[in-house]
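2024-03-11 09:14:02 INFO receiving multi-entity request
2024-03-11 09:14:02 INFO entity count = two
2024-03-11 09:14:03 INFO echoing inputs for audit
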Amino acid sequence: MADRIVLAHGGGGSKMLDLIERRFVPAYGGKALAALGDGAVLAGRPGRIAFATDSFVVRPYFFPGGDIGELAVNGTVNDVAMCGARPAFLSVGMILEEGLPLADLDRISASIARAARRAGVEIATGDTKVVERGKGDGIYINTSGIGWIADGVDLAPLRIRAGDAVILSGPIGEHGIAVLSVREGISFRTPVESDTMPLVDAAQALLAEPGAVRMMRDPTRGGLSATLNEIARAARLGIRIIEECVPVSEGVRAACEILGLDPFAIANEGRLVAIVDPERADALVDRLRRVEGCEAATVIGQVFEDRRSLVTVSTPYGGERVLDLSSGEPLPRIC
Amino acid sequence: MADRIVLAHGGGGSKMLDLIERRFVPAYGGKALAALGDGAVLAGRPGRIAFATDSFVVRPYFFPGGDIGELAVNGTVNDVAMCGARPAFLSVGMILEEGLPLADLDRISASIARAARRAGVEIATGDTKVVERGKGDGIYINTSGIGWIADGVDLAPLRIRAGDAVILSGPIGEHGIAVLSVREGISFRTPVESDTMPLVDAAQALLAEPGAVRMMRDPTRGGLSATLNEIARAARLGIRIIEECVPVSEGVRAACEILGLDPFAIANEGRLVAIVDPERADALVDRLRRVEGCEAATVIGQVFEDRRSLVTVSTPYGGERVLDLSSGEPLPRIC
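2024-03-11 09:21:47 INFO inference complete, emitting structure
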């Protein structure tokens, strides 16, 4: 039992302190975390603050191309980045199930550290709870994040106008299909890996073109379809996507065909959608393509007047289908 | 099934949007939450930022004197307040188990709203995940919080000096015993209710005496014993407590005797410990006693030179016992 999580690891006593001081702080802790306060005291900065939170319950917690630790960092970093902020500090709250192998926890902690370094954020504060066997599923992680928004950045759905261009930063559906493949024991000829990555550089590249971006979102749960529908609703406008412009990898396409899934409805964890000034769309795509992981960035559609806020996809054969907000992600516990 | 949580409530589609727009936003959402962004954009403020996070897994989620919603707000509000900040914004991340009655969720949401109002914080952003039956326990809640620290406030264990006074804001052990009593179906002649409450006013009352407070902590998991040990370790000094000065209610005392528990090791959720300038301790106690819920505030002991960082309790009969950092809270899932 010495190499597994026990209830006392969440008890606030010496076993919990051990976990924090010998595992979490050395693995991913910055100066604030190492101070072991009730919270972190951080230097203030000028500008508005972006504040985001996300809990991660992905099953299994190791999957092709990533794990729950990396996902938890990137997920919240990306939510902060989509607000137009440069993410600065993250909290990590863990809910561990009794019996979790400490080796798995260490591997996840190392992954948190790596992802935080890549995204340029500091893990400033944390919390650990342990639940009995059968009341969790190994590990759930909440991360919350804060970042500062530079003056002049103004992102809001109500800034969107008919005629605006829709930019996508890369191929869709990879995270969802990667998780599904390992969960269901399916293997595809072309293996699919999660696209989990921080979108900090991508967002900052777009914001470097002053005033050109109306709003940004990362299409996670519910996929591109859910995100475009949310944007259309909030803007009270329609969106028309050209299907052949949307990059989909061979592996994702094959998997979706076999499983009867729509790549537009599958979760991504390292892609962004931006609604932008159409006259500057090409310049923005150029900027984006120079960012690692966004080489396939492209314009995929346009905003148009529509009081019903419809999102449609034009197919290569001249047809058009409506992308509706389905009742939920087809795959549970994808993130 | 229409009155229970299903997996699709966590799927990012229309069912999740329903949950957020029809339940969470009306119950406890401020302007930022209602905007339904990936995160909240908040006005910056001058001063340092305190940032804290806490996950709550208390079993059962309704207990005498409170519930998991109220606890989740107060817990993080208090961590921010103990940093010397006035808490301003909170995030709420929920992990719901498939099958959770929506009536329970609504009751918890109302409780979150009430607690946030009382503490003077806005729920600015949130997240909802759903896990399968048997992979959770009804509801787990993470809250993270931010607040700003006024200029001149300087709290740190290394400011503590031998001779400093130890102040406690009220009777100990009530939260832990309240949860235990309902969990184990034990009833005591004197019913015990959780002490969960926000410590914002208490902390601000102490900080109104400039420079008098060295540091503050709320003794939650592991009780007063764990907190005093953490303080002593961080300050590299000893702490001596006078047992008869520590307020313990009749109900807690009786419960601890029957169950063989030490009230010093039981969790509190609405008490604070402050290490203060001894010359101003009486003035601080006076200030504290005027705050609702802190009427029994009192000096309970003193800091002394001790390189081993011992925490001891002097008993009424002239004896002395060492309060050590036990391996963990005697009661699992107390918060």
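2024-03-11 09:21:48 INFO post-check: Residues 171 and 249 of chain A are 6 Å apart (CA to CA).
2024-03-11 09:21:48 INFO post-check: The first strand of chain A starts at residue 40 and ends at 42.
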